[in-house]
Amino acid sequence: MKAAPAVARRFPYHKxxxxxxxxxxDKTTGGKTx
Length: 34
Fold this sequence. Notes:
The chain has 34 residues and is an all-alpha fold. It has one domain (1-34). It has helices at 3-10, 13-16, 18-28. It is globular, with a radius of gyration of 8 Å.
């Protein structure tokens, strides 16, 4: 789970893949993408 926030910061999925964002953002910002 430590890689989740790191990957999100390095690879903004919420801008490229909305589907992956749900998984990454859910742990990083608690699903703030939705």
